[in-house]
Amino acid sequence: MKVFDTIIIGGGAAGLVCALTAARRGLSVCVLEKNDRCGKKLSQTGNGRCNFTNSAMAYEYYHSDSPEAVKEVLDRFGWQDTVSFFEGIGIVPVFREGYCYPASGEARSFADLLTAAVIDAGAQLHMSCTVTGIETRGDAYFLTSQQTPVEPAKKKGPSGKKAAAKAARERETVDGETAAEEMFSCRNLVLAAGGAAAPKTGSAGESFLFLEKLGLPVEKPLPALVSLHLGKPYDPELFGLRLPAKTAVFADSVLLSEDTGEIQFTKEGLSGIPVMNVSSPAVRCLAAGKEVELSLNLFPEGLTGDSVYSIVKKSGAGRPVSQALTGLLPYKAAPFFLEQAGLKKSISVGGFHLSDAEEIAKTLTGLHFPVTGYADFDRAQVTSGGLLLSAIHPESCETVNYPGLFVIGEDLNCDGRCGGYNLQWAFATGHLAGSALKGTIC
User: Fold this and answer.
1) Burial of 241 (0-12, 13-18, 19+ CB in 10 A)
2) Residue 178's CB: how many other CB atoms inside 10 A?
3) What's the pTM?
4) Partner residues linked to 191 by β-bridges
5) For 311-321, how does the pLDDT look when each residue is reduced to its tens digit (9 = 90+)?
6) Longest alpha-carbon distance in the chain
7) CB burial class (10 A; 0-12, 13-18, 19+) of residue 327?
8) Which residues have C-beta within 8 Å of that of residue 92, sequence separation ≥ 6?
9) DSSP string, 150-199
10) Which of 11, 230, 238, 311 would bridge with 265, disulfide CB 3.0–4.6 Å?
């Protein structure tokens, strides 16, 4: 039995900051990480560049069951605190329009420096360690773990067989227990397993099962920051196009969220930062059985029929309108939008009227699609859902009903928009928990 003041399940962004904060206070800390290294998901964030916070920080940029709790967390540990925290371990911040990156531009080096700081502070890291059981006994928590199963090598031949044989040996039992089984005990247990998004990085939603077992309120985990699938009149032929647009989603005709920026047309529908930023409430409403609709305004600053008419009429009378519109739209998109405006794709400039131009302007500034689905957890950047914020003390992230049990990061029912907001939430909750952990070994 290995005994610690604090055991943290998950060596990701929230777990590592929690571990570093607690270890610096002199607590004995152990991090149990199922991967062979910490910060695997963190190493991939921001397309590998690690946008780790944002100076335009506001609680309104998050979805949760308690905006007040989100505000309290961010007030207690804001973006300036995050910047200072990481400057303290040698990470130089660089800002680009409010987005904050490490000067190295490398998420992997960011994660490695954070992991090294945790080790230097005296915390123990147990890698390739999968927690298989958690029990509460009085004011202590007891955990059972096993070595994370080794995936057999994909390629055929002796190497694959050797890997499979090695994994089998590691699972062999000795006196009824697995050879790699370990037991842990702690007074403080921190759940920081990272939600259910991007399961290839180790996130599988295990914390939610444990919390539900304890009878704690958990909002159903769903993918967030994902692309949305659209129904007709969406045309898969638009695949590959990128256009600036104002994107909005509605549920039962009520506006849920909106954002502006470059969207990307996919085979199933739409992606891009604006779409991902409005995806969380859209996905949750779809899961609740509501009718969800997405609207596009390709010219949010305004577009009139007169301006469309003027652009088209500058071309020769025999030229197709679809070609004349290429000063306004990509050629690939023009036929689709003509059709949505109720015009024939073959219409020529000579037969084009002001009323036609007004229909095109109306279409380009107000196209609507039914949302029929969304990408799964494999392609989600974060998790929507988790332990309700009403079940924790926001100043510490300790659960209300279970003293010594802390829940942080993506395991909480809070997800933010793109741009460093979800990492800020992870770091803030990790630091608040690490500062509140009790220091007497059970």
Assistant:
1) middle
2) 16
3) 0.91
4) 9, 407
5) 999 999 999 99
6) 89
7) exposed
8) 102, 103, 104
9) PPPPSS-SHHHHHHHHHHHHHT-EETTEETT-EEEEEEEEEE----SSSG
10) 238
